[in-house]
Amino acid sequence: MALNIHIYPKREEWDALLRRPTKDAAELEAAVGEVLRTVREGGDKALRELEWRFDHVRLQDLEVSQQEMDEALETVSPELLGAMELAHRNIETFHRAQAFKGERQRVTDGVVCWQKSIAIEKVGLYVPGGTAPLFSTVLMLATPARTAGCREIVLCTPPGRDGHVNPAILAAAKVAGVRRIMKLGGAQAIAAMAYGTESVPKVYKILGPGNQYVTCAKQMVSMAGVAIDMPAGPSEVMVLADEGGNPAFVAADLLSQAEHGVDSQVLLLTTSESMARKVADEVESRLPLLPRRETAAQSLANSRLIVLRSDEEMMEMANLYAPEHLIIETQNYMELAEKVVNAGSVFLGSLTPESAGDYASGTNHTLPTNGHATAYSGVNLDTFCRKVTFQHIDEKGIASIGRAVELMAEAEGLEAHAGAMRLRRERTEGTKTEGA
Predict the structure, then answer these.
(1) Hey, what long-range contacts does 13-22 have (CB within 8 A, 24 or more apart)?
(2) Which member of 88, 95, 260, 325 is catalytic?
(3) What is the Cα gyration radius of the chain?
């Protein structure tokens, strides 16, 4: 297949070049809304019907049994289990270092304020199955959840047509310490965790990537009081390369993302037309060798290889696109890294493939997509916590801020607010007068 190479596009063409493949929003919301209502009203019975409708499997038990867990562990090779344990250790190390250290701050005389980080008690994790069972996502979500101290962790993932969850997903759950696993996929899984059913507990926050139906479901239930991590939809990568880059490495990075799904998108920005053409040749020669070549080929139809005039233009376009994954394979990658403003996760140098972050470097691969990196962070330890603020005021504090509080409350017309402070100010000033 011939890849699209765009040489020195005009600024007014940039938005069109960076447009992502999406479904019609109204059609998507209507379909997802029906699933949400069905689960909210029908509970477990509705979940079984939806699993038959969407995943073509008839389920008796929605929860994975201990026997299924044990049998799955027996089928996973020791080498793969060892790789999972290595990745789990690295993920735990990186996320544990993010622990919040709240310090008490004396903001003025007699006023002390501080924050405490507290784990969210009940979280629901969504792990895609579909064409590629992403057991690595189990590690990426469950490891920081356990590290943060979440009390109840529920994991939903779609079963195969035999009614069983992929053994590697169950093995990763064992490594990460997840005990409750539900055989549920798609929007119905999000609905089950948001509303609760006879078998699936209601959670306070739902996390995890998924297709556009899953992402839409997360956004819709978030309007009903359930928190979500971010709008994480179809995967994407943008690679920056100059004339000194390795075309084979760049092509491999593009293909590794393209094989995720037909709605994934890959882009190359380069200051070298020769590099763009070499990468295109490498992609075309490597594509037929992939087991998932048909998926990758459909994804590459959404790809762009864009030749720009300078590093400055590359960084401007990269920040405009706000990619989920940004790979900088230039000679001056550390210099360009300082100019990154919008990105989910950044991979620096020719020896740092995006797949390292997907699996075992320790960073999290659950990241904002579809341009949401302009405002959202990827999953981290704080994703599983909330901050509670504390404050303490003594007599000196009343003297420091009391009158200001009264004046501001009165100016807003909130007399009861002013009165709450006025009573304390009068009491403390009276005490001081009597003791003088």
Answers:
(1) 14/317, 14/320, 17/304, 17/306, 18/267, 18/304, 18/317, 18/320, 18/321, 20/234, 20/236, 20/265, 20/302, 20/370, 20/371, 21/234, 21/263, 21/265, 21/302, 22/212, 22/370
(2) 325
(3) 26
Q: How many CA atoms lie within 13 A of 147 on its CB side?
A: 25
Do 180 and 63 contact (CB within 8 A), yes or no? yes
DSSP letter assigned to residue 382? G
> Nearest-5° angle of CA 37, CA 39, CA 42?
105
First to last CA, the chain: 90
Whether the Cβ atoms of residue 54 and residue 46 lie closer than 8 Å to each other: no
pLDDT tens column, 351-399 = 999 999 999 999 999 999 999 999 999 999 999 999 999 999 999 999 9
Whether 243 is catalytic is no
The Cα-based distances of 348 to 123, 157, 325, 340, 394 in angstroms read: 32, 32, 11, 11, 51
pLDDT computed for residue 398 by the predictor: 97
pTM for the whole structure:
0.92
Buried b (16+ CB within 10 A) or exposed e, 126-146: bbbbeeebbbbbbbbbbbbbb
3-state DSSP assignment of residue 35: helix
Set 259, 324, 354, 406: catalytic member? 324
Task: Verify whether residue 335 is a known catalytic residue.
Answer: no
